[in-house]
Amino acid sequence: MKLSQQTIDTVKATIPFLKENGETLTRHFYKRLFEHHPEVKVYFNTANQASGSQQGALAASVCAFAQNIETPENLSEAVSLIGHKHVSLGVQPEHYPVVGEHLLASIDELLNPAPKEILDAWAEAYGFLADVLIKHEEGLYGTQAWNGFQKFTIDNKVKESSHVSSFYLKPKDAGEVPSFTAGQYITVRVPSADGTTTMRNYSLSHYGNNEYLRVSVKREEASHADQASGYVSHYLHEQCEIGDELEIAAPSGEFTIDEAEITKLKENKTPLLLVSGGIGITPILSMLHAVAGEGIPVHFIHGALNSETHAMKEEVMEVARNYPNVNVHIKYSAPLPDDQPDSLGLFDSDFIGQFLSPSSEVYFCGPKIMMTQMLTFLAELKHERTKVHYEFFGPAEDLQTCPMGHG
Fold first, then answer.
1. Torsion angle in degrees (nearest 10) through CA of 297, 301, 302, 307
2. Which range among 102-106, 109-113, 172-176, 390-394 shows the weakest confidence by mean pLDDT?
3. Where does residue 58 rank: exposed (0-12), middle (13-18), buried (19+ CB within 10 A)?
């Protein structure tokens, strides 16, 4: 499918409107979609809906699509990210017409009414994008260990810090544990109070063990009095014990270090910088396990408030003891009296620069503020963008305007 020049020109002409009214449009869209199709609410994060971050993320995505409509290849990274997320949640081709219907209706209602040429252009453009995503997701579904959800049993539950617990999961039917690539996540589906279900993605926090899948989950507390705490994280922490069952979707995600990349790192003697903050340690720890025994020079940096909140410290230090190619640096920003980290304070460009060489491949994950700062630091250090890899938990609209961000 190829877009007509008239459609391209018309969509581009709507960019100023989208920049000014994008979030108004997406708020109206979600409200309309959920009113007409409440069954699709299970595919969305209610906390992100309540905070408005999901609306902001969609607005940024719609605007980015309009800005790149003549060069859709520029969106390949975003298409891959969205595709993996959709597959992890079980989004199907039949969902796309529903979304398209209410997106177009929202445009029409917001412009009260929209000119026919705008609706026709966006209908064609949305159809083009939907076709790209459907085909991409069809390929991803074909590579999964299974589609949909399977039942796993909690084989062990381990408290890792004041707010983090690890859940060791084995197939209920005693079948094979699926293989995965270091950095990938699984989707956990749990029952909701309203009789439906709620899904969340959690990074797999280990690698190299085919006896179980492990996720390490932070109990998410509300940051404001008018916000709700994380439903799924509280469900796992407070209601799930050893022997209980969970519904799990197959491993997914593109923030990974696979075997081919490890081989390339070894052949080129490329140094690796792994950086994590808080619960962002989960995919980074998986990567550390994958590369530790390969002889690659590895700097592993982790930032936490203090020893009370620092999850899986001993596991990381054991890797460093076993593999001399691994150098670990721990940084605390609010240490307790007896804490003895390697350094104090927050990350800055001078600190990151100590561990960086021009050839370093950099992987990082953590809270929003850390992610935006890391992108800024690496830009200041003039590190090559193709050597920077990251994963952000939640809608990444706030990373769009960073010097190294998407868009």
1. 90
2. 390-394
3. buried
pLDDT tens track for 191-217:
987 788 899 999 999 999 889 999 999
Distances in Å between the Cα of 211 and the Cα atoms of 70, 183, 187 are 48, 18, 19
Beta-bridge partners for 275: 301, 364
> Contact 299/272 with Cβ under 8 angstroms?
yes
Q: What are the extents of the domains in the chain?
A: 5-143, 149-252, 259-399
Nearest CA-CA partner of 182 in 261, 266, 275: 261
3-state secondary structure of 355: coil
Q: Considering only CA atoms, give the Rg of the chain.
A: 22
Q: Which helix (H) or strand (E) holds 107?
A: helix 95-111
State the Cα–Cα distance between residues 356 and 12, nearest whole angstrom.
Answer: 40
Mean pLDDT of 36-57: 82
The residues that are catalytic are: 96, 137
The CATH label, of 3.90.190.20, 1.10.10.410, 3.40.50.80, 3.40.50.1110, for the domain at 259-399 is 3.40.50.80
Q: For the structural domain made of 5-143, what CATH number should be given?
A: 1.10.490.10
pTM: 0.89
